[in-house]
């Protein structure tokens, strides 16, 4: 049964959402493995250097989809429940990274499965991958048969954005990523990302996040508003009482503006990947919503 508690359609206005200057998406230092490394030519706008997979780091005033700050040092584990953006960069002799200009190269990402974002039609799209013994993650793509006006992001914006929903049964497992690069340079790259547990949530901080970001549409305690957004607190049938939801899902998939079945959220929802909130903020808000049932 599809979970209740997340608006999928409606006519409510977007409303004013207050952006908090909250903690930045943590800069995770991680070490990359490449299956191929070769010098590239500066012709065609491609920076010279060794191609590597790099990960975006986002300042508190920035957003996940628009940033020019990256790291290619993958030495720390990434907490499950996070969303990260991976790119192909070119590591220069001084250790700095240059990102190829838009359109200069094409990158096809693989490894984790692809979820096709749907509009809820029974014969369309793919569900969120089920959890198991190893970490769970996926790429997100739009269904070309659905009007683009319903989507929060384009496929170009979602390219390389990885949603990590679960750490696996044992913890400390890895997600293997591959990038097929064509254009001004042709190469195959790989990276292995170590995933740690979903961070514990803070109901105290979650109450602040919810009040600033969600209450205007979902009500002061998440009970919903007549004629507005549905309830998402711990009352029966709402998101925070639904066992098919988890903190890791809320921290990751909601940031992609889909529900836990891979179904589009209402277009009036904020474009969360473009706002200065972290997955921890969403986990905290979910933790607080689990204490609210009125």
Amount of beta strand: 15-25%
- Poorly predicted tracts of residues: 1-40
Please estimate the helix content: 10-25%
Give the H and E element order: EEEEEEEEEEHEEEHHHH
Architecture overview:
This protein has 294 residues and is α+β, with helices and mostly antiparallel strands. It has two domains: 30-196, no CATH class; 203-289, Cytochrome Bc1 Complex, Chain D, domain 2 (Orthogonal Bundle), CATH 1.10.760. It has five helices and 13 strands. It has helices at 155-158, 203-213, 215-218, 247-252, 279-289, and strands spanning 30-31, 50-56, 70-71, 73-74, 78-79, 83-91, 97-99, 105-110, 114-117, 136-142, 161-166, 174-183, 187-196. The strands form three sheets. Strands 2, 3, 6, 7, 9, 10 and 11 form a seven-stranded mixed β-sheet that branches. Helix 2 (203-213) packs across helix 5. The longest helix is centred in the last third of the chain and has 11 residues, at 203-213. Mean pLDDT is 84; it is low at 1-40.
Summarize the structure.
This protein is an alpha+beta fold and 294 residues long.
List keywords for this structure.
13 strands; seven-stranded mixed β-sheet; four-stranded mixed β-sheet; globular; 294 residues; Cytochrome Bc1 Complex, Chain D, domain 2; alpha+beta
Write the layout of secondary structure elements.
Layout: E1 30-31, E2 50-56, E3 70-71, E4 73-74, E5 78-79, E6 83-91, E7 97-99, E8 105-110, E9 114-117, E10 136-142, H1 155-158, E11 161-166, E12 174-183, E13 187-196, H2 203-213, H3 215-218, H4 247-252, H5 279-289
Parallel strand pairs: 5-13, 9-10
Antiparallel strand pairs: 1-4, 2-3, 2-6, 6-7, 6-11, 8-12, 10-11, 12-13
Helix pairs in contact: 2-5
């Amino acid at each position: 049964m599809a979970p209740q508690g997340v608006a999928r359609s409606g006519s409510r206005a977007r409303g004013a959402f207050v952006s908090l200057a909250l903690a930045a998406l943590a800069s995770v230092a991680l070490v990359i493995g490449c299956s191929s490394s070769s010098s590239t030519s500066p012709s065609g706008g491609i920076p010279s250097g060794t191609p590597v997979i790099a990960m975006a780091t986002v300042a508190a005033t920035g957003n996940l989809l628009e940033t020019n700050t990256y790291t290619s040092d993958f030495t720390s584990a990434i907490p499950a429940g996070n969303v990260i953006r991976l790119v192909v960069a070119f590591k220069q002799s001084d250790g700095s990274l240059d990102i190829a200009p838009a359109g200069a190269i094409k990158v096809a990402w693989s490894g984790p499965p692809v979820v096709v974002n749907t509009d809820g039609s029974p014969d369309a799209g793919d569900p969120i991958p089920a959890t198991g013994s190893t970490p769970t993650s996926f790429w997100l793509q739009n269904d070309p048969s659905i009007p683009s006006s319903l989507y929060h992001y384009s496929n170009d914006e979602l390219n390389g954005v990885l949603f990590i929903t679960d750490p696996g049964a044992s913890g400390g497992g890895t997600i293997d990523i591959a990038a097929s690069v064509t254009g001004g340079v042709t190469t195959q790259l790989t990276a292995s990302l170590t995933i740690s547990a979903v961070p514990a949530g803070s109901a105290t901080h979650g109450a602040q996040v919810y009040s600033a970001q969600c209450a205007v549409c979902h009500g002061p305690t998440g009970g919903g508003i007549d004629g507005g957004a549905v309830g998402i607190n711990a009352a029966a049938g709402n998101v925070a009482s639904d066992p098919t939801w988890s903190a890791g899902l809320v921290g990751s998939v909601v940031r992609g503006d889909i529900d836990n079945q891979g179904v589009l959220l209402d277009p009036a929802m904020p474009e969360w990947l473009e706002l200065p909130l972290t997955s921890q903020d969403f986990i905290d808000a979910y933790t607080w919503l689990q204490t609210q049932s009125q």
